[in-house]
Amino acid sequence: MAPAAVIIVITLLYPLGYMVYGSFRDWDPSQTIGETDWVGLRNYVVLYGDPAFRESLWVTLKFAFWVVTIEMLLGVGLALLLDRKLRGMSVLRTLFILPMMIAPVVVGLMWRYMYHPTVGTINRWLKEVGFSGVDWLGQNALLSVIIADVWQWTPFIFILALAALQSLPSSAIEAARMDGATNWQTIWHIKLPLMMPVLIVTCLLRLIDAFKVLEVILVLTEGGPGLSTEILALRISRTATEFRELGTAAAMSGYLMLLLMTLTAAMFIYTKLVERRAQRLARLVAETE
Known about the structure:
Number of strands: 2
Helix content: over 70%
Strand content: under 5%
Order of helices and strands: HEEHHHHHHHHHHH
Oligomer: single chain
């Protein structure tokens, strides 16, 4: 127990405590943290009234909401469609997860060239079929980074949803079919409720990751134009490296951590409620057999 506790303190709690401690200091990169001045909650109060910080937080919330919603719908939908024995299915599944294996910087560069207004593949294709080009990295910059993220991370949802589907008890599905349930009714009333604990954890993992995405947006738009794609992780990086305000950057990280902890707690409470509902459903199915 003691070695495990020491490892947890060193690898997890010490860096976290270092960040929280730094958020209460007026910290310049040229100083050690011991040489900095204690400022209490000043960094948090200043950030609360900072329009640029609030705009970054709003952009982060919009980005996370849209990417997680679209990825969950596409990933779960594809898993439901492909949960069957078809020839070549294993090859198709392997091809489908390839985007996850590409480094985020490479994904950003790839989509940046595809979005190029004159030589980009997407605008050239649109013009060939009679449409005008789209200002992907200007007026539609947020949409562009959402598309790139959905392309890369929908396979993650697909893999976990498919694993959840294939682990469902066949007795529940067969009982529903014997009672005359249609495919849609089986999906809506049996499969999705039984999959829900896995889907909630999957959603939570993607939500946490969406709040931290940095490389793809940095390469694609560098946060622009203006602040339209400057999510919180990018602003924290700039505050620490360009503006050299480590205390303020640590306070931003503190806000982000509080937000994610709140979301995590809410989703775990919801997971418990869903698990109880699934257990009641399983008991009802067992009683009808």
